[in-house]
Design goal:
Number of helices: 22
CATH topology of the largest domain: TIM Barrel
Number of domains: 3
CATH class of the largest domain: Alpha Beta
Strand order of the largest sheet: 1-8-7-3-4-5-6-2
CATH superfamily of the largest domain: Phosphoenolpyruvate-binding domains
Largest sheet: 8 strands, mixed
Helix content: 40-55%
Radius of gyration: 27 Å
Bound molecules: phosphoenolpyruvate, magnesium ion
Strand content: 5-15%
Distance between the termini: 32 Å
Number of strands: 16
Shape: globular
CATH architecture of the largest domain: Alpha-Beta Barrel
């Protein structure tokens, strides 16, 4: 047996035989006689039509297998195949005596290179899409079919969206790719389809032969090649346990998130775009605890209009009209610079003009967002949340601007809900220290542990050298969470959490014991956290929390929580 190390892209274990994906042939005739130009153009048009048909089928099939959102990529490809600027480049190459195949390949490469050179990650991803279209057209021009029956563990240089969609996912049990990272198309699709995947294995891919037996361990990013029988038996047992666990968690999906003694702990999801709402509903969550609205602003060259924003906020609210939807106002600045808001050079951006601080400088941008939020409020149960609040004055200024936006809408006769709940993120230690004072001015708190840890421990959340400090189980962080919960309870306000800690099942008994009544997380964490909650007794969790508040180190706290976790079925 030997091992290949790669990147753990999609969790789970798969055992099977290697099957390499066939790559498109590139040795076609590139130059044609001038007299053949019209015929080459006809061949291109025919391939274009065939591609549109294939993409339509892929779109339908992906929507049925993996959901509408995953299928959107093919709708976009259909538009790109007929895009006038792409077609113009192809036809120009044919006019210069390129064969249809060569013209398509040149055009796709040129446009992809242009996209790849742009600063935005979104546009860079479009480069992969245009290459994918080029590949599809060349295959069609060469008379290739879309369907290849791959079975077992698929090994490929990279998996483009159309490659994955053409697969019968019931026959493919794992992916290994030479290229790609955690956020590449293939990884995202593997996770969405629940297929274990290891990506980025580089040239090691070529050492794998068709028919080799491999174990793909998507938890740690390892491929075990031709393992011995005892290792295979061990991994088979692990697969069985994972399947039992998945079945149990799936059965929890739509059960209430209630403790044994009848306390309801609201489970919500964190989202970044309105398109994420499908997953929130599928996860069995009860609403949205954090909508990071930055996405609306980050890829833009100008401020998104009020109309655009109203539409996005309404789409989220309307997807779950009777559920609580917490929309956070713009948290830009720091490491999320906006191109249209002059990024002033700052020595310490994380301690600088970020979030509410930036919004109070660019009040026109902020007011537009507040107007859009109020206008959207008619579509559901909106909760507005301000990020990075550190002082009462900041909160009062933000609330005053919200009042001003409401007054304007009243004067304009534009409808909005006048009783929209207003809360803050508690993610700066200063806010945690005066939580009792802030509680008088808000309807709710949501604790953002990602930043609360960074600012409490004075450890940059992106800096691996101080990662040992970036731990939400550090006693000062746990104590601050306890203080905030106490202050909120005393003032009769609810307190939730939307930082990463909320989705860690190890932390669930502690957070419930400290008095949090809402936890907002990534959709994938909802079933396991819900399963934990359903095994808790609140009185017991309070005793655990008191005990944990007296512990001295993060590892003591983790150790105790691990002991507690042993009491649960999963
Ligand atoms: C947090 O800080 O915990 C949080 C949820 O906000 P973000 O990760 O968007 O900074
Ligand atoms: Mg934050």
């Amino acid at each position: 047996m030997w091992k290949i190390k790669g990147i753990a892209a999609s969790a789970g274990i798969a055992i099977g035989k290697i099957m390499h994906m066939q790559e498109a042939v590139h040795d076609f005739c590139r130059l044609v006689d001038a007299s053949q130009t019209p015929a080459e153009k006809e061949r291109f048009y025919a391939a274009q039509q065939a591609a549109e048909k294939e993409l339509e089928i892929l779109q339908e099939r992906t929507a049925a297998n993996m959901g509408e959102q995953q299928a959107e990529v093919f709708a976009a490809h259909k538009l790109m195949v007929t895009d006038p600027s792409f077609v113009e480049v192809v036809l120009n190459h044919i006019d210069n005596q390129a064969s249809a195949e060569a013209a398509v390949e040149y055009a796709a490469n040129e446009i992809a290179a242009m996209f790849a050179g742009l600063d935005s990650e979104y546009m860079q991803e479009r480069a992969a899409d245009i290459k994918d279209i080029g590949k599809r057209l060349v295959r069609i021009l060469q008379g290739g079919t879309a369907e290849v029956n791959y079975t077992g563990i698929l090994a490929a240089q990279d998996l483009l969206p159309s490659d994955t969609a053409a697969l019968d996912l019931d026959c493919v049990s794992g992916f290994i790719t030479a290229l790609g990272g955690k956020t590449s198309h293939s990884s995202i699709l593997a996770r969405a389809a629940g297929i274990p995947a290891v990506v980025g294995v580089g040239s090691a891919l070529e050492k794998l032969n068709n028919g080799d037996t491999v174990i793909v361990d998507g938890h740690v990013g390892e491929v075990l090649v031709n393992p011995e029988e005892d290792i295979l038996a061990d991994y088979r047992l692990r697969i069985k346990k994972e399947q039992e666990r998945a079945a149990l968690l799936a059965s929890v999906g739509h059960l209430p998130s209630e403790t044994l003694d009848g306390h309801h702990i609201e489970l919500a999801c964190n989202i970044g775009t309105p398109g994420d709402m499908e997953k929130v509903i599928a996860a069995g969550a009860e609403g949205v605890g954090l909508f990071r609205t930055e996405f609306l602003f980050l890829d833009k060259t100008s401020v998104p209009t009020e109309e655009e924003q109203v539409e996005s906020y309404k789409a989220v609210l309307a997807a779950m009209p009777d559920k609580k939807i917490v929309i956070r106002t713009l948290d830009a600045g720091g490491d999320k610079q906006l191109p249209f808001i002059g990024g002033l050079p700052e020595a310490n951006p994380a301690l600088g003009l970020r979030a509410i601080r930036l919004c109070m400088v660019y009040q026109d941008v902020f007011k537009t967002q507040l107007r859009a939020l109020l206008r959207a409020s008619v579509a559901g149960n909106l909760h507005i949340m301000f990020p990075m609040i550190a002082t009462v004055d900041e909160l009062l200024s933000a609330k005053a601007l919200l009042q001003e936006a409401a007054k304007e809408l009243t004067q304009e006769g534009v409808p909005y809900k006048s009783d929209v709940a207003v809360g803050i993120m508690v993610e700066v230690p200063a806010a945690a220290a005066i939580a009792d004072i802030l509680a008088e001015e808000v309807d709710f708190f949501s604790i953002g542990t990602n930043d609360l840890v960074q600012y409490t421990m004075a450890a940059d959340r992106m800096n691996e050298h101080v990662a040992y400090l970036s731990d939400y189980f550090q006693p000062p962080v746990v104590r601050l969470i306890g203080n905030v919960a106490k202050a909120a309870q005393k003032a009769g306000k609810w307190v939730g959490m939307c930082g990463e800690m909320a989705g860690d099942p190890l932390a669930t008994p502690l957070l419930v014991g400290l008095g949090l009544t809402e936890l907002s997380m990534n959709g994938r964490a909802v079933p396991i956290v819900k399963h934990r909650i359903r095994q808790l007794d609140v009185k017991q969790t309070q005793k655990w929390a008191d005990e944990i508040l007296s512990l001295r180190t993060a590892s003591d706290i983790k150790k105790r929580l691990e002991e507690i976790a042993l009491e649960f079925e999963i």
